[in-house]
Amino acid sequence: MEEGAHCTAERGLLEAVSRITMFSTTASPDEEQNQPKAEISCQVSKENPEKDGLQDSSASLSPNSSMTTKELQEYWRNEKSQCIQVKLLFEIPSTRIVEHHLSKYVTGSFDSNKSVIERRYSDFEKLHRNLLEDFSEELEDVSFPKKALTGNFTEEIINERKLAFKDYLRRLYSMKYIRRSKKFIDFLTKPELQEAYSCLRGGHYTKALEILLEVIGLQERLTRGNPVSIVPTLCAIVVCHKDLDNPASAFEYGEKALSRLRVHNSHRYYIPLLEAMITLAYELGKDFLSLQEKLEEWKAKKDPVRVFSLKELAVREYVQ
Predict the structure, then answer these.
(1) Residues 215-231, mean pLDDT to the nearest whole number
(2) Which among 33, 34, 188, 263 is most buried, taking Cβ atoms within 10 Å?
(3) Does residue 192 have a pLDDT over 80?
């Protein structure tokens, strides 16, 4: 059998699935030395490293007041170089081979400290192609891990691929415009969100809520520059809690969503969320007058239009 045909047959039957773990943390070079040798972490400086570095150094150190301006500047420069700020650490702790027609491509478990997802090799290939459409220059020096044509996924090849993908994710995340791009964020969150909304539409609120609560932490870490983008997920959580007769929890997440819409009252979720929050506040015996005033104020400024309920909006998300 020719090599190309062998590759096609292998691709049709088997798929390598990588489990990606993402940590939010900070680390110094000394701490990095103590990490397991198999781990490659993604190290990214904060958006304003000069300001952050100065604050961190000044909080713990006291330079001699007799230093000249030049000496003081050099002092701070040296101190800042000793600390590397990290937002996410990528690790691929495991890979597995699954039969194509039986595989479950998406699983996940998340907590406040780490997020774990599974993606196929073909998912990574699609991500790379999509990113090349918008960031071809930025990706000129970024090598995509090659697919083995032969070798039957030996342990050696799998380990090499794990290391290659750790480095690949680290390189992508190190570029601000890529890590903030919708395509990169969708790669890490969209499959889980699609599953959650499918459960919500089917009335499986407990399962939908479980997935949404798992993914919201990762979404928040990936979209800190755009907090409004997670409003749909927060509102879907509100809907699930409400339908599961958890009004207190629904109100809690509704407040989080409203705080992100404070200066975005033209957002499609703003009025449905206000209406849901008024109902929840009344049910919980909370003050709903301020919410009612905001609703009336908005209605006075806008022409009457049909507004979907919060649940109607939620079930429309991720409908192909």
Answers:
(1) 90
(2) 188
(3) yes
Strand order in the sheet with 108-110: 89-99, 14-23, 114-120, 108-110
Q: What are phi and psi for residue 150, nearest 5 degrees?
A: -135, 170
User: How many separate helices (H) and strands (E) can be counted in the chain?
Assistant: 14, 4
**Given this model, what pLDDT does residue 221 score?**
85
Q: How much is the pLDDT for 217?
A: 87
pLDDT value at 13 more than 50: no
Q: Do 171 and 143 contact (CB within 8 A), yes or no?
A: no
Look up residue 317 and give its DSSP letter. T
Q: What is the pTM of this model?
A: 0.69
Do strands 114-120 and 108-110 pair parallel, antiparallel, or not at all (unpaired)? antiparallel
158 close to 116: Cβ distance less than 8 angstroms: no
Phi and psi, residue 263, nearest 5°: -110, 20
Q: What are phi and psi of 224, to 5 degrees?
A: -60, -25
Q: Tell me the pLDDT tens digit for each residue of 224-253.
A: 889 999 999 999 999 999 999 999 999 999
- For residue 24 the two structure tokens come to 């939010």
CA distances (Å), origin 154, targets 148, 157, 257: 10, 5, 47
Contact 197, 316 (CB under 8 A): no
Q: Do 183 and 131 touch, CB atoms closer than 8 A?
A: yes
Helix axes 121-135, 182-201, angle to 10 degrees: 130
Question: Which residues on adjacent β-strands are paired with residue 109?
Answer: 116
> In this predicted structure, what is the pLDDT of residue 159?
80
Alpha helical stretches, state H, 136-269: 155-173, 176-179, 182-201, 205-222, 231-243, 247-260
Which tokens go with 10? 């292998």
What does the pLDDT read at residue 304?
61
